[in-house]
Amino acid sequence: MSGAFPLLFVRVPSTAPLVEYSSCYWGTHAKRETTESVKTLALKLLGGYDKHISSKMLLLHGENTLDLPFDQDDTPRGFTGLHGAAYLRCVEITAVSLEMNKWDVRATDSCGNTAIAWAARRGHEEVVGILLGRNDVNPNTVDTISGQTPLLWAAGNGHEGVVRVLLKRNGVNPNNLAPNVAKHLSRAAEN
Questions:
Q1: Computed from CA positions of residues 51, 87, 166, 125, in that sequence, does the dihedral angle turn out positive or negative?
Q2: The domain spanning residue 50 has which CATH number?
C-alpha cells in the first residue's frame, strides 16, 4: 500500500478536487465549531499525519516548495499532527493534543521546523501563545533549511503580533545569529 502512495498523490489534484479541498480547508471548518466530535475526528486525522495524503496536499497548497519537509518519496516526513494543528491555527485542537501529550512539542519535521515554527511563520498568535505556555518548547530552534528561528519566521513574514508574543517569553533570543540572518532581518524590515 505504501508503494501506491506517490502514484495516488499524482492523480489526486486533477481527479479529486474534493480531496484537495478537504485536505486544505478542514481546519477552517473545524475552527468554526470545535465540538467534542470535531476534536475526536481531527485527532484521528492528525494521528499519522506525516504519512497522510492530506498533510502533503496541505503543504503543497500553501507553501514555498523549497522549504517543505518532504523526503525522497515525497512524503512530508516528521510533519506530525501537532505541526498540522499549529499550521492550520486550530487553537482548541492544538490545546487538546498538548493536554493528551499526543506528540512531542520539540519534534521537528525533516526541515527542522517545530510546531511553534509553523505557527510563527503563518502568523498564528494564539497557537504560538499556547505553545509558549509550556516549559518544554524551545522557541529558539533553528530550522535546517533556511536557518530561521520562529522569531525570524514571524518577523520576516510581517507577523507583528507573533513577534510580540515571542519576545515576551524569557529566553527568546532576538540576537540569534542564524545563517543568513541579515537577509532575514532585511525581509522583516520590508514587512
A1: negative
A2: 1.25.40.20
* pLDDT: which is higher, 55 or 188: 55
Q: What is the average pLDDT score of the chain?
A: 82
DSSP-derived 3-state class of residue 143: coil
Q: How far apart are CA 121 and CA 113, in angstroms?
A: 10
Q: Which domain holds residue 109?
A: 4-190
- What's the number of domains the chain is made of? 1
Torsion of the alpha carbons at 55, 60, 61 and 65, rounded to the nearest 10 = 140
pTM score above 0.85: no
Chain segment 71-125, per-residue pLDDT in tens: 666 667 889 999 999 999 999 999 999 999 889 999 999 889 999 999 999 999 9
